[in-house]
Design brief:
With about 325 residues, this protein is α+β, with helices and mostly antiparallel strands. The chain folds into three domains: about 120 residues, no CATH class; about 80 residues, no CATH class; about 110 residues, no CATH class. It is built from 13 helices and 13 strands. It has a five-stranded mixed sheet. α4 crosses α5 and α7 packs across α10. About 5% of the residues have low confidence.
Length: about 325
């Protein structure tokens, strides 16, 4: 198994005794080296000096006057955003605490890209030692948008950025032909669909984001996604849960549900409230799951021992935008004293 997802920055971080990721100076330096921050040749002296100072002392306080001395308006704004994010990281103590703190009800004040990067590195931590490439590929749903496509009865998920990058080409292949709309014409993307027999391909190509998984009921990648959801919940809450795929929800009046994306949340809310959902929207549901708590006492007393149902859907553009924070903030956990 290779050292996968090196771009996450996991190798730049340290772990605390609880296995959470503590921010290191090198991790902060990686942000200062981003193209939005790194000075270019025509940058002013103040900008070069600020960048050099932060590279030397990544946690240093930047006085407002020092920031205002940067001539380029965009550069000043980029530094403000990044330094606010840096200060959040340092105040939280760990990457996990910073991520969870973003969803405390006051609104997310950092760019979506930074949120996705936090999820990326946290999952790399969670998956340390994982030998199942399907789990690693399934985990990409948490931080990379996917394009959903139906082929030969299978619901396939391909990396959206990769699909869009190649959509205008005319590449034909055996496995993984996905037809997508691109610039008003049909484009074809040649990608490999991972299954048990060829899953090891992922370790060679994880940084290319050019593999596809099937989330059709009964396929191994769907089970792999269940394992990732279980590990994510356990890592953040310390609560053991088991998750399994479902063909349908049999319970007429279920106790709790969590949408894994905005579309699923809206559909499940409508179904629970008895609102009729037209078939076009229902077809956007790609997968259903049942979550059970190992210890019912860990749940809210009024629904202890009941199943929690999850759904994964695509939007009207067939894009899947997974919201992993929903698995933290929407869990029916017992109030801890």
């Amino acid at each position: 198994m290779p050292d996968f997802w090196r771009s996450s920055g996991y190798h730049l971080l340290e772990k605390d005794p609880a296995g959470r990721l503590r921010v290191s100076d090198d991790f902060l330096r990686a942000y200062y080296l981003r193209p939005e921050i790194h000075p270019v040749e025509e940058s002013c002296d103040a900008e070069h000096a600020l960048h050099e100072a932060l590279m030397h002392e990544p946690r240093r306080t930047v006085p407002p006057a020092e920031l205002e001395a940067v001539a380029d308006t965009d550069a000043r704004d980029n530094y403000r955003v990044l330094l606010r994010f840096r200060d959040r990281l340092l105040a939280a103590g760990t990457v996990e605490a910073c991520y969870a703190g973003l969803f405390g009800g006051k609104g997310v004040d950092v760019p979506p890209l930074f949120v996705e990067q936090l999820v990326h590195v946290i999952l790399r931590n969670i998956l340390e030692g994982c030998e199942d490439p399907l789990q690693a590929r399934a985990a990409e749903l948490f931080f990379r948008e996917q394009k959903a496509s139906l082929k030969d009865g299978h619901v396939l998920l391909a990396d959206l950025e990769t699909v869009e990058m190649h959509a205008s080409g005319n590449q034909f292949g055996s496995l993984g032909r996905l037809i997508v709309e691109a610039q008003g014409a049909l484009g074809t993307v040649n990608l490999d669909v991972l299954d048990r027999n060829n899953a090891a391909l992922y370790w060679e190509r994880h940084s290319r984001h050019d593999t596809v998984i099937s989330v059709t009921y009964g396929r191994p990648a769907l089970d792999a996604l269940c394992r990732v959801i279980e590990a994510w919940v356990a890592h953040f809450t310390g609560t053991a849960v088991s998750v399994k795929p479902l063909r349908r929800i049999e319970e007429a009046r279920w106790a709790w549900h969590i949408g894994l994306d905005a579309e699923s949340t809206a559909i499940l809310n409508d179904l629970w409230n008895g609102t009729e959902v037209e078939q076009g929207r229902m077809r956007r549901i790609l997968a259903l799951f049942r979550m059970d708590f190992a210890d019912p006492a860990a749940m809210r007393k009024d629904i202890a021992g009941r199943a929690v149902y999850l759904a994964l859907s695509s939007n009207e553009a067939d894009v899947v935008r997974f919201k992993p924070q929903n698995l933290i903030v929407n869990l029916p956990l017992a109030v801890r004293s």
